[in-house]
């Protein structure tokens, strides 16, 4: 187990190193002078020179990377060009809405999707199976912004059951916090539900055809015990894999969802930074999102060995 953990940690460090190199080069991959790109089309030569000196762009590329990497290791993600505020402080200010949306979406999606997938596999070929899988295809096919605006029109404008946009902090009460996140959570979670449900159905259907499941049925084992205790555990590795892969879908969807519902989270921060060409913010957010994705995939890999001990070898 320790050797398996060591291998995964080494690979994680290598991946994050490559991500760090890419994030650093993001500023230099653009055609032309990075300082002129940041300054904009109407900047004066003096403003461009000031930006170049502030970012240290006159130094050799290797020196710039070493200086940047050292700051990142120490937790310093740089300073916003336009607000002169540390990037880490800006991200922390926007972290609660994004974290709330992401955690609620994962809880909603995994709970609904696994339930749908198990039920569809158990009733394979029957109308309920076709209905659930048809819903999954529809949820995965519709763009996030279309789903978001559709839900806003129905539940916020026509029925007036839920707020149209915005976010209420958890400190304002669980009720307002939850009500403002219902529509964004459903919007972001639909594609995630579809992905996990289809994989759950496929994995469960394969396990349900095994001999030991037939034996359990012949012995009169209750369906709930057979499905949840025996079949689902043995079908768990592919399901956990697709949950980990879906985190990338979740991270990308957060940006769109926060824009549609006017949520002041990290996704909105990225959109504003891109429009202003504030590269330190863009680099910092990409680095953090990448780190979260890599760590979740590390946790998924480690969970394999708990579900199936043969993977350790």
Describe the protein in words.
The chain has 313 residues and is mainly α. 77% of the residues lie in helices and 0% in strands. It folds into two domains: 57 residues, no CATH class; 221 residues, Orthogonal Bundle (MetI-like fold). Helix 7 packs across helix 8. It holds the Pfam family BPD_transp_1. It is a multi-pass membrane protein. It comes from Bosea thiooxidans.
Low-pLDDT runs of 5+ residues are none
Overall number of domains: 2
The arrangement of helices and strands along the chain is HHHHHHHHHHHHH
- Mean pLDDT over all positions: 82
Shape: globular
Q: How large is the radius of gyration?
A: 24 Å
Helix- and strand-based class?
mainly alpha
Helix content: over 70%
Relevant CATH superfamily of the largest domain? MetI-like
What is the end-to-end distance? Answer: 8 Å
Largest sheet at a glance? none
Q: Proportion of β residues?
A: under 5%
- Strand segment count: 0
Count the DSSP helices: 13
CATH architecture of the largest domain: Orthogonal Bundle
CATH topology of the largest domain: MetI-like fold
């Amino acid at each position: 187990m320790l050797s398996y953990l060591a291998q995964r940690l080494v690979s994680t460090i290598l991946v994050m190193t490559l991500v760090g190199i890419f994030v650093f080069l993001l500023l230099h991959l653009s055609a032309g002078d990075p300082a002129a790109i940041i300054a904009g089309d109407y900047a004066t030569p003096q403003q461009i020179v000031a930006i170049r000196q502030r970012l240290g762009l006159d130094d050799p590329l290797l020196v710039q990377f070493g200086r940047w990497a050292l700051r990142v290791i120490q937790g310093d993600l740089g300073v916003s060009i336009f607000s002169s505020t540390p990037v880490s402080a800006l991200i922390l200010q926007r972290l609660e809405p994004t974290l709330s949306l992401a955690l609620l979406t994962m809880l909603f999606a995994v709970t609904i999707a696994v339930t749908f997938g198990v039920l569809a596999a158990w009733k394979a070929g029957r109308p309920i199976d076709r209905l659930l899988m048809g819903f999954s295809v529809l949820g995965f096919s519709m763009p996030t912004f279309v789903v978001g605006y559709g839900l806003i029109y129905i539940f916020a404008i026509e029925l007036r059951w839920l707020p149209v946009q915005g976010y209420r902090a958890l400190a304002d009460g669980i009720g307002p916090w939850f009500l403002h996140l219902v529509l964004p959570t459903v919007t972001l979670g639909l594609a995630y539900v579809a992905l996990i449900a289809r994989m759950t159905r496929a994995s469960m259907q394969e396990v349900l055809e095994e001999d030991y499941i037939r034996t359990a049925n012949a012995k009169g084992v209750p369906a709930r015990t057979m499905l949840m205790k025996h079949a689902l555990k043995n079908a768990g590795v592919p399901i956990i894999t697709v949950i980990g892969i879906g985190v990338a879908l979740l991270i990308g969807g957060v940006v769109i969802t926060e824009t549609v519902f006017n949520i002041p989270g990290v996704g909105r921060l990225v959109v504003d930074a891109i429009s202003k060409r504030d590269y330190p913010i863009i680099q910092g957010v990409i680095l953090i999102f990448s780190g979260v994705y890599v760590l979740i995939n590390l946790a998924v890999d480690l969970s394999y060995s708990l579900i199936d001990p043969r993977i350790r070898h």
